[in-house]
Amino acid sequence: MFQRTWRDTGLLALAIALGLAVYSLSQLLAHPLLLVLAAIVIASAIAPIARFVERWVPRVVGVLVVYLAVALVLAGIGWLIIPALVEQAQQLVDQAPSLADQAERWVEDQGVPIQGNIGDQIRSALTEGAQTIILLAPSTFSAGLEILLVVAMAAYLTVSGPAMLEFVLTLFPPDRRDYARNTLSEVSQTMGGYVRGSIIDGAIIGTITWIGLMLLGVDFPIVLALVAFIGELVPVLGPIIAAIPAIGIAATDSLTLALAVAGFYFLLQQFESYVLLPAIMRQQADIPPLLTLVALLAGNALAGFIGALLAIPLFGGAFVLFKRVAVPALRRENQAPEHPHDFEGGGRPA
Known about the structure:
Elements: H1 2-53, H2 59-109, H3 118-135, H4 137-169, H5 177-216, H6 221-232, H7 237-251, H8 255-284, H9 289-334
Helix pairs in contact: 1-2, 1-4, 1-5, 1-9, 2-3, 5-6, 5-8, 5-9, 6-7, 7-8
């Protein structure tokens, strides 16, 4: 009895030590692992395009062509909008204190007590922001190197993807390899499809926002369109937060314009929720909305904003594995009947 107690105590201590070691190692490798996961998600998004180009050229050449085309498209978009974006952003920074003073006067006219001067607070925030940007210059350089590293890893994964898949399939019995191939293909399609769908959705919404705000006569339409594009990458809260600056800027002109902008964003969200997103995500990915929200919260808690963006496609891929591997195994174990419509999702919440 005494020896058994010592043995159990020793096993418990060993388990605790291993748990602490794994936790420490995970903390040490968290950032590199995040970069690898980002590369996997990007490679999943690019892979179908590379397969399409592979019909005419070797895969390595096709992957290089695809990544070069993406870089050229981004550079072209930047060349078209960055000058106007920088100009409008500078105007917004210059006018921010004046806009804050107008907002302060409007609040005071409504009889709402405020503490301090909003304009002074805005000026102080802009000064601190400029200082922060200067201090973050080395970090920005490091982030640029990490982006290049992620893109290089993604390109390598895209090139070597088929060979890696064939190697993984050798780990399965011959009669299960087709099922394993289809499952892994669905995992890749779900992860990459979500990324492609989100970017397509954000680009369309950003373009419509730019055109709509120009027609309404709202200042800084390109800046606000970029905010709308970024907001679309974050389900539920992103589009709502993206609408707030536009409504606030319009309110400095007139209450009528602010109401018109609010109505425009409301109608845009209805169009996205009921027309655009279902049409895009039905073709690209099928992730249940509840899983999207859980992934968003979990990713943000673990790795901040970038973690939240990566968590959604990764959770989607894990959900496919659960649906295609764990669920059939549990049904066989419990002798439960198959169900033809398991977890039909509907993309993501708008």
